[in-house]
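Hallway conversation turned thread

IA: we were arguing at lunch whether anyone had actually written out Pyrophosphorylase end to end. Turns out nobody had. So, for the record, here is the sequence (93 residues) and right after it the structure tokens. Reply here if something looks off.
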Amino acid sequence: MSRVLSTEQAKTAIRQIQSIVNGGFTDQISQLDAQGRILSDSNVWDGPLASTFRGSTWPETKAALDKAKTELEQLRTQLDKISQDIFTAGGGA
């Protein structure tokens, strides 16, 4: 038989994760993307540093942001199951 444990600390932690993810963290990533796209426009910002930003800095950063956003959205879909499992293991809400 495997051990099942659900402490108040676990319940609090899952609620905090839900609050952070649902509280706009992915929206902030979208806002960063929007500003990065603006800075990537040579009609808005140009020059050697702007070229480096457009050519490597922003594409690398955008890829990392996209990955983080995708993973957060996947976590969001799993949070309900995770929290339900924790609450069930702990005997209720």
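OS: looked through it. Residues 6-88 form one domain.
IA: good, adding that to the notes. The CA atoms of residues 18 and 79 lie 7 Å apart.
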